[in-house]
C-alpha cells in the first residue's frame, strides 16, 4: 500500500482559521472498490468557500468532518480506475481534497480537461475551473447584466471577482471593481481594463461609488458582505440585482454575523438579492468553458494565478485569503506535477 | 372657498410615531387649475406604508413634506373635474391624503370603482384596493407559489397578509400564517381556513414553523422583518423566495435597524429575496381586481375590515398598527359617506 499525505481538519475555527486548525497526516492508501477512481493531484485549489465547509453548519455540501481531509477543487490525473468511464492517464477537474491522492466516486469528477494549447494547465483549475465557472454563472445567469448597465464587483482582484469583472465588461456593461490596496486597484484598471476601481482600504467607498456609478448599481456581485454589501444596497439602481457569491467578511472571531441593515432598499428599488451554487450548473460547464476559452485565446480575458508549492504549506496560504495578501487565484502545485503538466 | 380639514405631518417620528407628530389643520380649498380633479373622500386608508413615507428618506415615493397632509389611499367621489376623463359623481380609488377633500392630478387616480353588488363599498379600498392588489402581485408575481409548495405569511391577520395567505391556499399551496395573539391565530385557522397558524406572542416561532413546515418554506411573504425574517430565512427550502412587502418591526425608537444576520442562507439555499412596489403593476390592476372579485363572490376569499369614524381620530388608529391591536384592514369613514355609499 502506497503512503498518502493529507491536510486534515483538526479543529473547527470559530472565526478566521488558524494554522492549529489543520494537521498534516500520513496514512497508507486503501485499495479501490468497484466504481471508485484513484486521482493523483497536480494542483489543489485554495478558495474562500472552503472556510464555509469547515463550519459545523449544514450548507449546500455537508461540513468537512473532523479528522477528514480538507475538501477542495483539484486538477488531477486518473491513476487507477474501477469505473470504465475514466481511463488511467486522463486529466480531470474534481472536487476532492488537499492531499496527494484521493479515492473518489464518479460524481466528484467535474469534467475531463481538454487542454488548450498555449494556456497553462493550472488555468484549467482557475479561470477555466471553479472560479471561472462561478463568475460565469453567477454574473450571467443570476446577475444578468445588460449592455449599458453598471456592474460592481467586490473582491474584484480575486479568482472569481477578476473573471466576473471582465465578463461584465465583455458583455457591454460598465464594470467597477472594489479591492483592497493600491496595487490591486492598479491591477483592476491597468491589467483588467475595468471602467473604474475603488480601493476600500484607502478610499471612502460610498463616495467613490457614487462618483463612479452616478446612476446607481444594476448588478452588485458580492463575495464580501458586511459594510460593502450595505453600500451596494444603498446605491442600488431601480430593479438592481445583488448576486450573493460569498460573505468572507462575515467570519468574525468575536462578534456575531451582521445582516445588511438597509435590506429594505430591495423594496424601494424593486431589487433582488439572490444566492447561487455553481454545482447546480454542472450540465452547462462545457458551454461556459468554451466561452471562457474563446475569451482567453483572443486575449480579452486576463487571469492572474499565484501558484505556490508544497502540500504542507497549503494551510498557511489559505490563511492569506483572510488578510487579502494573495494576488489572484491561489493554487498549490504538488510534486507529482511533471514538467509538461505545467 | 370651502373649508377643508386635513391631518398634516407636524414632525417626523424617529421610531414608532406619536400623536404629537400629527396635526389637524383647517384651511380653505383653492380653486382647481386645468387638468386637476377635486376628490371628496368617503374612506381613508390606514396602512403601515404610510410610516415609510413619513421618514425623511427618499424611497419609491418622495417623503411627505412637513406641514403637508398625510399621503394615503382613498376611496373618493369626483366632486369637480377639469380633466374630461373624470366625470363628477364617479367613484374612484386614489392616492391622496388624510383629509376631507383633495385636489389631485389624474395620475393619482388609480382606477374607477365598478361597484360589485353585495360587496360593501369599503371593501373596494381594502381587499379590492391597495391591500388586495399588494397581496396579489407580491404573492403571485414575486413569490410565484406552485401547487404543493409551502407559503408562510407574516402579519397574516392584517389587510395585506390575510389576502396573501388565502391566495396562497387558493393557488394550491400549503398556507401558514404568523400573527400576534390567540384571537388572531383563531381568525387565521377558523375564518381564513389556513393550514397552520403561529402566534408569535405566545409560541416559539422557529419550533412551531419547523413542525408546521417540515420540508421548509418555499415562499416567505414578509411585512415584519427582524427576528421573524431571520426565522424565515433559516427555514427556507431549496430555491425559496422571500417576498419583501414591508418591515414594520424595523421602526425602532432607540436602536438602529437590523439586517437579517443569516442572509447567506440565500446562498446555500439558492434563494432569492425580492422587493416590489404595487404601483408598478398599475396596468394590471383590473385583471387582479377581477380575480379577487370572483373569489369574493364565490365566498372563497374572506376579508375583515375595521372601519372607524372621524378624520380627527385617524392618527390614533394609525398608531394601533404598531401595537397590533387592529383587526384586519383599518379604514376611516368620513362624514361625506352617504347611507348608500356604505
Count of separate structural domains of chain A = 2
- Through-space gap between termini of chain A: 28 Å
Structural class of chain A: alpha/beta
Work out the number of β strands of chain A.
15
Main sheet overview of chain A: 7 strands, mixed
Query: How much is the radius of gyration of chain A in Å?
Result: 20 Å
What is the CATH-assigned architecture of the largest domain in chain A? Alpha-Beta Complex
Quaternary status: homodimer
CATH class of the largest domain in chain A: Alpha Beta
And the CATH topology of the largest domain in chain A?
Quinone Oxidoreductase, Chain A, domain 1
CATH superfamily of the largest domain in chain A: Medium-chain alcohol dehydrogenases, catalytic domain
Give the strand content of chain A.
25-35%
Helix content of chain A: 10-25%
SSE order of chain A in H/E notation? EEEHEEEEHEHEHEHEHEHEHEHE
Question: Mean of the pLDDT scores of chain A?
Answer: 93
Chain pair sharing the greatest interface: A-B, 32 and 32 residues
Approximate shape of chain A: globular
Low-pLDDT runs of chain A: none
Number of DSSP helices of chain A?
A: 9
